[in-house]
Write a sequence for this structure.
């Protein structure tokens, strides 16, 4: 995970060094998730047929190659786009296949709790990615960030290589590899899938642009530059807040009902998104607090949605279900940072609080779809 958000963490650096427009910066951030969405249907569905550990090992090694390539060969928009696309494929081979590695080996009574801990590790990795990017780039330059990310990916491959082998239970009857029709027509699953798509669209706008937004807020207040709460450190803290949010959200679902809890969280997230951009001129500490609150709220339904989809999945189709879930979620994650950057460019280039406010308001408008699709497709079940 160390290399996943290295580019968003250093976004202001790359915008200045490569003279990128906000739209082009959004493309580099978004191509990562577009490549993920394109590769994940095959890479996750194949875990219904072979041990997911083998897919994970491929992805971890590809992550190392793509990070090293970015460190030594990325010189501008097109080269950065290519290496980030490779890194997106690597994530497609590690994140959801890694979840399948866990599910195939877990024998405890509460699988949804195990899933919530796993998915919260994504946010922990996000925190590490932002923190190390900020620290390493300050002391050694941005290429060292990606060199370290490559080394960490190799370590991850070594850890998973030590796990015991398992043989997945195939679906009955045996079907074609990429036949997703049974998942797409199964309403209990698709409610969570569509909800996850809305969630990811909002989440990855925040993670792609939070450092740039906080850097802009600092230019308005003219204070706080020397504080420990600089934008990259806040990005790290937002990941840690998200860890707690992901676990807490699933626990709330176990107590109050999954659909009811997720709906309430999505509505709260819409309200925060609608106001955060316009808050940029406030005292920097207040903007930081609001960003951390947003990070926690937007993450509350992450594990809950994934656990809901897995819990509703038909026997033998967990891999196909995760493939549809990941494609939907990261498909919107690919588009949303690009659209966000385009809105910034269309409203003044992100040079005013109004520009950021309108861009985040667009995210809030998209977030309104979440409760609707969840109720419609999941039948409003608690």
């Amino acid at each position: 995970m160390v290399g996943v958000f290295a580019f968003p963490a250093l976004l202001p650096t790359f915008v200045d060094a490569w003279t990128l427009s906000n739209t082009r910066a959004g493309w580099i951030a978004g191509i990562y998730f577009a490549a993920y969405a394109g590769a994940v249907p095959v890479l996750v569905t194949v875990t219904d047929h072979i041990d997911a550990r083998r897919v994970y090992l491929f992805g971890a090694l590809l992550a190392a190659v793509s990070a090293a390539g970015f460190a030594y060969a990325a010189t501008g928009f097109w080269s950065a786009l290519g290496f980030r696309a490779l890194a997106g494929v690597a994530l497609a081979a590690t994140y959801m296949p890694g979840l399948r590695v866990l599910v195939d080996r877990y024998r405890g009574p509460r699988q949804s709790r195990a899933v919530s801990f796993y998915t919260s590790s994504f946010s922990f990795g996000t925190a590490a990615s932002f923190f190390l990017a900020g620290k390493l780039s300050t002391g050694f330059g941005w290429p060292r960030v990606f060199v370290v990310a490559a080394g960490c990916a190799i370590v991850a491959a070594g850890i998973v290589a030590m796990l015991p082998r398992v043989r997945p239970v195939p679906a009955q009857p045996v079907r074609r590899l990429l036949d997703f029709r049974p998942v797409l027509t199964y309403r209990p699953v698709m409610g969570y899938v569509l909800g996850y798509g809305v969630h990811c669209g909002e989440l990855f706008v925040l993670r792609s642009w939070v450092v740039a937004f906080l850097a802009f807020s600092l230019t308005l207040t003219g204070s706080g530059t020397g504080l420990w709460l600089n934008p990259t450190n806040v990005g790290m803290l937002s990941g840690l807040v998200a860890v707690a949010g992901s676990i807490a959200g699933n626990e709330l679902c176990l107590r109050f009902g999954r659909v009811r809890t997720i709906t309430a969280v999505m509505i709260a997230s819409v309200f925060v998104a609608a106001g955060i951009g316009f808050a940029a001129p406030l005292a920097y500490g207040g903007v930081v607090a609001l960003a951390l609150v947003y990070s926690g709220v937007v993450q509350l339904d992450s594990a809950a949605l994934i656990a809901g989809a897995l819990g509703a999945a038909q026997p033998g189709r967990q891999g196909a279900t995760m493939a549809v879930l990941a494609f939907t979620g990261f498909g919107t994650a690919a588009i949303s940072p690009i659209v966000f950057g385009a809105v910034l460019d269309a409203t003044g280039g992100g040079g005013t609080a109004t520009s950021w406010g309108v861009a985040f308001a667009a995210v809030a408008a998209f977030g309104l779809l979440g409760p609707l699709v969840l109720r419609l497709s999941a039948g409003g079940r608690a």
